[in-house]
């Protein structure tokens, strides 16, 4: 069914007292960004509800996008109909038919704010109800827990018919929880951790380490595409591409094999911490899950975390791999994540990394490289791109392709 | 020339052939190669998959490319049998399935599987009650076609799906080769359909390519083992030109599907209403919603189907005896036999099958020729 408007109900933010205004403003902004490529939409974030006027845009597509935006509790697609009872009947009937399966029951729920409408609430209920009963074989009205409820609001500016209540993602609007950096590799875990961070309203800047020629253009494109996937929860995301080749080469050359990984991780965290401060972010998110790999034991975390006193947030700490994969599938990042490109974490993995590195030994090993110089050169060459919903990175040939398809 | 044999195969769309040729010439890298050239092919492959998934409103990882309808049917059936053997050995199908299904079943019977072939009514349809009554503890698979290829009846696949919601362990395969682009999307992709077979050349794509829908999480063993393509479920270097061409063909097919279907139904009903007035004509298809909009099967009593086909051919009109697969073997239609049509009528059966490019003018021409031939055949009959 092609609807004309969508009414969006706010989630948790209804409880947030005086911050409410900011929350609504942020959600309005996020919804606008997520829906940026629908040219004709009108989005109006009001105190009680957010209202999307479709102006002919495809309602199914808009509904699909809204499902993902954090801060939305539920929403209802609606039809604006002229104030003519026959027109209302026709649309109400269509709406029921759209959902009806044999054996279902229905109810009409009328709100008559326009007191000048010739029929009263009771008469409207009866007119719409009988139109439905007369035209659908076997359908019955039921007041208590019907399968289909048609809500008819007779307002001054028209009649609004709605029926479905679609569940939103809940959570808080991205941006209301402050801003943090996220260490995004391109694997399965980091997009899931990003998702969970954003769910609590945190706006994330993605930090991605790029080591050409050890990692390919495709691996970089994949990380960007994953970022794009995550924009649908709250709009544009900044992507920081940090050159890491020189650091990796120097570590490989100078650091004993057992500590390669630990020192490399320390450098990554150090760079991220520096970016976090310079960008006025307030914390670092990572996709680490306790005990999953050598760098994710408590001992390793201690040896790595040693480089910063920034809060390092690890939303996946206690999740099993299968649980992480399930979320990745739900947020549609799994398929992308398992694309087989080498990333910065796998290229220089020694055959037997230390699972319990010693903190003092780690510090000693690190002294073998020029931490300061390496940091400076990497930070000077960070590239920043702003990634919008719907952007394509993996399919650079899209134009050629679309001609073929 | 008037081509009324679209259930046998369709004329490849020119722009689709163009895509095929362009991809063959320019994007010939192996999608599994690591270099940029392979990467480009890989991207195009995945984009084709996404396009198909989007059109059908399913997830891209639920689309698997195959070599066509026969492979899809074989894969769904044998792959399920292999994957679910330890849970049971009973399979339910209908007696009017395509040979790709029936003969796969026969092979499985030799291996010790037990197959129930459901009967059909006078319209060629199975009944949901029969399906229900046949389900046993050991049932692992139900395979039913969406649209019968010989008479065009639409099987109650949605209702069977509803029934199967109570039997979540039974895999449900739908052969939708004749059903695509005929306004049946919602019943084919019902909530319970696990595996659905499609064939490219039935909708203006090249031969040798098709695809299978496999619901997420459903288990099926590969029929082709090898290099691990298609998530290790269908090995073989991807037939990229044909796949891209098919993705395009599907898009063209489903643009304005509603109007196209209405047009085919109008043509079919026009011919149906005309010919069913004649005493010696028996129509096996009907003009109601229980039949697909594009297939019309009828007989002229006392005249062999083959004779009717050649007679029309001499006027440049191409129709067929029931199915293309059986027509050269001089077999009576298995669907009509299952519908308990007497053999002498079944041997007279011919099939008209339409596509979206057929016109009302062609139908009018058809009935003119029909009149001429009917008169001629009267003489033979007398």
UniProtKB/TrEMBL annotation, chain A:
It is an enzyme of class 2 (transferase). Residues 60-165 form the THUMP domain. The gene is thiI. Its EC number is 2.8.1.4. PANTHER family: TRNA SULFURTRANSFERASE. Keywords: ATP-binding, Cytoplasm, Nucleotide-binding, RNA-binding, Thiamine biosynthesis, Transferase, tRNA-binding. Pathway: Cofactor biosynthesis; thiamine diphosphate biosynthesis. It catalyses: [ThiS sulfur-carrier protein]-C-terminal Gly-Gly-AMP + S-sulfanyl-L-cysteinyl-[cysteine desulfurase] + AH2 = [ThiS sulfur-carrier protein]-C-terminal-Gly-aminoethanethioate + L-cysteinyl-[cysteine desulfurase] + A + AMP + 2 H(+); [ThiI sulfur-carrier protein]-S-sulfanyl-L-cysteine + a uridine in tRNA + 2 reduced [2Fe-2S]-[ferredoxin] + ATP + H(+) = [ThiI sulfur-carrier protein]-L-cysteine + a 4-thiouridine in tRNA + 2 oxidized [2Fe-2S]-[ferredoxin] + AMP + diphosphate. Gene3D superfamilies: 3.30.2130.30, HUPs. PROSITE patterns: THUMP. ATP binds at residues 183-184, 208-209, 265, 287, 296. NCBIfam families: tRNA uracil 4-sulfurtransferase ThiI. Belongs to the ThiI family. It comes from the Bacteria. This is Probable tRNA sulfurtransferase. It is found in: Cytoplasm. HAMAP family: ThiI. Pfam families: ThiI, ThiI_fer, THUMP. Catalyzes the ATP-dependent transfer of a sulfur to tRNA to produce 4-thiouridine in position 8 of tRNAs, which functions as a near-UV photosensor. Also catalyzes the transfer of sulfur to the sulfur carrier protein ThiS, forming ThiS-thiocarboxylate. This is a step in the synthesis of thiazole, in the thiamine biosynthesis pathway. The sulfur is donated as persulfide by IscS. InterPro entries: Rossmann-like_a/b/a_fold, ThiI_AANH, ThiI_fer, ThiI_N, THUMP_dom, THUMP_ThiI, tRNA_STrfase, tRNA_sulfurtransferase_ThiI.
UniProtKB/TrEMBL annotation, chain B:
Coiled coil: none annotated. Residues 2-366 form the Aminotransferase class V domain. It comes from Apilactobacillus micheneri. The keyword Acetylation does not apply. Pfam families: Aminotran_5. This is Cysteine desulfurase. InterPro entries: Aminotrans_V_dom, Cysteine_dSase, PyrdxlP-dep_Trfase, PyrdxlP-dep_Trfase_major, PyrdxlP-dep_Trfase_small. Keywords: Pyridoxal phosphate. Transmembrane segments: none annotated. The keyword Chaperone does not apply. Its cofactor is pyridoxal 5'-phosphate.
